[in-house]
Write a structure and sequence with these properties.
heterodimer, A: mainly alpha, Cytochrome Bc1 Complex, Chain D, domain 2, two-stranded antiparallel sheet, 14 helices, 5 strands, about 35% helix, B: mainly beta, Sulfite Oxidase, Chain A, domain 2, 5-stranded mixed β-sheet, 8 helices, 24 strands, globular
Chain lengths: ~350, ~425
Amino acid sequence: MSKSLKLLLTAATVAGLGAVAQAQTYGLGREALPEEVAAWDIDVRPDGLGLPEGSGSVLEGEDIFLERCASCHGGFAEGAGRWPPLAGGQGSLSSDDPLKTIGSYWPYLSTVWDYVHRAMPFGDAQSLEPDEVYAITAFLLYMNDVVLDDQFVLSNENFTDIHLPNEDGFFMDDREESPLFPPHDVCMTNCADSVEIVMRANILDVTPEDAAAREARAAVAAGTETAAAEEPATQEPAVDENAIDMELAAEGERLFRQCAACHQVGEDARNRVGPILNGVVGRHAGAVDGFRYSGPMTDAGDSGLIWTPEEIDAFLENPRAYMNGTRMTYRGLDDADDRAAIIEYLRTQE
Amino acid sequence: MTDSHQKDGPTRRSFLAGSAVAGAAALTGTAARATDPDPAITEVQPWARYLGDGVDARPYGHPSEYEAQVVRRNVEWLTADTTSSVNFTPIHELDGIITPNGLCFERHHGGIAEVDPAQYRLMINGMVDRELIFTLEDLKRFPRENRAYFLECAANSGMEWRGAQLNGCQYTHGMIHNVMYTGVRLRTLLEEAGVQPAGEWLLAEGADASAMTRSIPMEKALDDCMVAFKMNGEALRPEQGYPVRLVVPGWEGNMWVKWLRRLEVGDQPWQQREETSKYTDLLADGRARRFTWEMDAKSVITSPSPQAPITHGPGPMVLTGLAWSGRGTIPRVDVTIDGGINWVEARMDGPSWDKSLHRFYYEFDWDGSPMILQSRAHDSTGYVQPTKDALRDVRGENSIYHNNGIQTYAVAADGSVENVEIA
């Protein structure tokens, strides 16, 4: 911590907290129970405060990483598509193309543990056990060459011994000391002889096109409606009971976002952590080409399980209870209406 | 600091007379003359003949169908997935200083949390005399206050470090909104729990799927921060943190934790992901600034701008824009139409509130020739918004965050506007 912030905080302690001591209270709220604090207070600090007991090895971490993380972060933590790379980039920070990873940029290992535990896997947050988080963290240390031994085991005992390479690469905000900061006079007239345009955004041409919106406005003005200007399509309840309830499907589309971290639908869908779900309603279980199903799922498909709405409903309610050994790590969806909405949405994905 | 030549209003006209060509018909002040009667007047319009919707048709009102283009937009190539992404406020379509709730830009890291207010809890734990739990109803029993503050993402204009890239202030400057919040002073809640003397830092945590966290120094927490449950009079929108968000006036938007569920008091910062690997400012030498909380003074012309070209031809026109500072108010904005050779003071209009958006106008007669537009904010500390090149000189091009450099637009004779940089 910089000297200036320390001073600032000392001042706060004297001026601010002194006042707190005599502050008015209202007697609102209630005392938190220890179990409640323990459930939510999951943060971990660089000094190790907050770390639970546990351990995990590089090799255990590799298995978990490939299963739970690699679809976004790559098998070598190098990143996939636009998802973040987690390894590499050492020595790149002062280049034109800095690569900010755990090994090249992050100052503290506790941040890795804390973030993996609180927010990962993306779309299935807080589903990892402490030992799994230790293992993933150990694997990431190995992929970043911070530990070189693939037999390394990370635990709450040795955690604070590990220091990331860029720990000293940060300093407290000092913008107010920059030459730009002090008040100064500005020139108002005849400040330059000439000006020249040296760069144009048009040349890059990366601005999203909003012609559709403009056309929609023109169409509305002309008295005709276009799809872009309409509300999402809704239909009258159909006589045909197989007809899709578009309102329910729209709700399902919203709810499907929690599934989308692992499952893709639509034209360009491909298998990710989970298989493509196009046409899943009514098809055989375990039937998507190129997807590595669990043994039980493959067996179920072989013995004729069809994903009827009823079967999907039962599966979604509690995947692991429905099918012991499934790779789907999703915890399940208690709300029957939400399940119905997701199934309705899946019915629209032929 | 203020150039005395520019203090009185009429000199704006003399500035123009010097730099712009007079002589267009409109400059004489004579209104145009029509040859044929206007059917918009001579024909009875449908809305003037037939009855419209009744009072039960729109229980929650929406904008006119003719305003369908006024929406938030995202930039698809920017992020891997829309659930951890950003969209942008259409500031080129707005006026005044308050952002309508449905147009406030969104940035979230695990999608929009849909929190049931009946299940909402706010916990205060850590170095306090009493670890407490509040329900939403509890929060509403504390004394409230109303304050308008801008919220700007630290990465606003972050795509422009290496040069002009996106054509439209919605994309270059639209990670900002300005809202009137109703809520409880954070100080009030901390006093209720009793902060212990060693409690110099506060961790704020969200209830969403990213469990967003930021460390905030206690001095700021006890100063002007709020725990808000209303925006512009109504409940927070889900995408803005319903039912409760933190308000951290003047400081980068990432700290304004949405879906706020927990406040922990501690004796040192937690060094969370969003204050180490992100929201730190990498400089050219490879070192990085951390805890760059305040948003520096900044301004942008919102109209004309690439998405809001001049469509009316030469003659009287209104140039307008927004200015703000995380360190106070904006007493002055300068404007140039010749690329910075000559400047005039814009006319500030509307309320001038601490750490809130300010609106400026510059009314002039356009002669129809190409222009190069810029605006330059001065804040109440005397700080002057720098040029982008001046900023690059001290920051390099890898900072991503805190780009408050002066924006330049080239206006062509046909009224179209482009994001450019000049030398």
